[in-house]
Amino acid sequence: MAAALLLAIFTITASAAAHWDKDDHEIFELQSALEKSEGKGATFYSVLDIKRTSSLAEIKRAYRKKSLELHPDKNLGVEGAQQRFERLGLVYKILRDGRKDRYDHFLKSGFPKWRQNGYFYERYRPGLGAVLVGIVFLSMAVEVGISKLTSGLERRKIERLKMSARLVAWGPRYQAILASLFDETPAGVQPSKISQMEKKVRVPITGFPSLPAYPSAAAIKSGTVDWDVQEQLTRSVLSNPAVSDGAPIVECLVHKDDVLLHDKFSQEWVKLDEDDAKPSGFHQTWPFRLVGALVNRVTGKHEDVLGEVEDEQDEEEVVEKSGAKNGRTAKKNKNK
């Protein structure tokens, strides 16, 4: 297994370096030596003091001029004079033949660097800090995306429950009655007093999933909605309601365009509003919540939920003990 892994790594490495030919390697080596000698950023053109767009004749003249200047006989005792003169000759050979286009390509795209067994392009390798920051931002984006998805589902659930409650309260023509509550009465709709009355209804908490879509405001305003067709579609849903098995039944209060849900725990009526299902933004993701919690804990502004729970438990124990004590006292008095 280990041998196969090493073979695969070697094959990938070899194939990554095999696309450079002999001329490319010569260009890489000459460019590397040139930068070491002349300084970083030195090019074949800067050595000859010419532009990249220079013609072959201009390159030839520049070479003759530069070769006289760098000839070893004129630079006796200068360290590296012979090597500079030889590199100049190699530069001229490359720029005067077809390898010039290849050099221009690397000059534009960048030169690969030598890495152990071949030339490779340098790639950005993020550090630990950059990786952690990237993970944090990615997790924030995922959290926001999931929040938008779930909020959209919640909005549709609330809207379906409201429409289902109106259907039970107002009958199959509930869409036309609902449309009459906004602005002026749309074409083909008679004002109804039924929507002005409060009515309690019981519907599945999932609503009726197959209800026809409520017409758009533009369609209602233009009078292009056929309310009789909408009523027929609603009646067909009522004849065979696709309700999830085991869906709990909830009590709703319908009054005008408002629908309230009865909370059996608090015994209160809660208004159903699609706008309550808002997706969280970036400032509401876990890093901001974590920082806020730490700041509140340091400044002492946090609410000690655990403490409150313990206090409530202590109060319940006191009440229970007090009740038990009063019961024993009453029993004694009765026996006496």
UniProtKB/TrEMBL annotation:
<dbReference type="InterPro" id="IPR052606">
    <property type="entry name" value="DnaJ_domain_protein"/>
</dbReference>
<keyword id="KW-1133">Transmembrane helix</keyword>
<dbReference type="InterPro" id="IPR001623">
    <property type="entry name" value="DnaJ_domain"/>
</dbReference>
<feature type="region of interest" description="Disordered">
    <location>
        <begin position="306"/>
        <end position="336"/>
    </location>
</feature>
<dbReference type="InterPro" id="IPR036869">
    <property type="entry name" value="J_dom_sf"/>
</dbReference>
<dbReference type="GO" id="GO:0012505">
    <property type="term" value="C:endomembrane system"/>
</dbReference>
<feature type="signal peptide">
    <location>
        <begin position="1"/>
        <end position="18"/>
    </location>
</feature>
<keyword id="KW-0732">Signal</keyword>
<feature type="compositionally biased region" description="Acidic residues">
    <location>
        <begin position="306"/>
        <end position="318"/>
    </location>
</feature>
<keyword id="KW-0812">Transmembrane</keyword>
<feature type="domain" description="J">
    <location>
        <begin position="43"/>
        <end position="107"/>
    </location>
</feature>
<keyword id="KW-0472">Membrane</keyword>
<protein>
    <recommendedName>
        <fullName>J domain-containing protein</fullName>
    </recommendedName>
</protein>
<dbReference type="Pfam" id="PF00226">
    <property type="entry name" value="DnaJ"/>
</dbReference>
